[in-house]
Amino acid sequence: MTVPESIRILIQRLDLELDESEQAANRGLELLQSVISVFSKNAIMIRYYAYFNNVLFFVNLSRNKIETIKESLLSENLTTQLIQETGEDLSLMLGQLLETKIELNRILQILD
Predict the structure, then answer these.
(1) Three-state secondary-structure class, residue 79
(2) What does each C-alpha distance from 25 to 41, 49, 50, 108 come to in angstroms?
């Protein structure tokens, strides 16, 4: 059985969203560098710094999970159930990523 086009499109979308989230988190860390050096004990700035690092960790974990999923989709034992479960997992990951991007953008607006 071959991998449906919808799964491939979902993986491409996730890759794009992960790249954008990584760029936003790195931008946030850059913005915080100068602020944290001046306000090193500011709890909000420390929380933002931790959040951006957590986002980068989430991005890396998600990329690893996607690679594992891609490998499982190359299996000769690909079943309809596996494809359905994979689609559900990827959709859940996309939902989490979109929520993360919303929060990233909110924090970046505050920092700007």
Answers:
(1) coil
(2) 21, 9, 10, 9
Q: Are 59 and 25 in contact (CB under 8 A)?
A: yes
> Maximum distance among all alpha carbons in the chain?
58
pLDDT of 19-51, one tens digit each? 999 999 999 999 998 888 887 788 999 999 999
According to DSSP, residue 39 is labeled S
Contact 72/2 with Cβ under 8 angstroms? no
Q: Which two tokens stand for residue 62?
A: 């998600």
Asked if 39 and 45 touch (Cβ cutoff 8 Å), the reply is: yes
**CA-wise closest residue to 66 among 15, 23, 27, 29:** 15
How far from each other are the two terminal CA atoms of the chain, in whole angstroms?
A: 49
What's the pLDDT tens digit per position in 43-95? Answer: 999 999 999 999 999 999 999 999 999 888 887 777 888 888 999 999 999 99
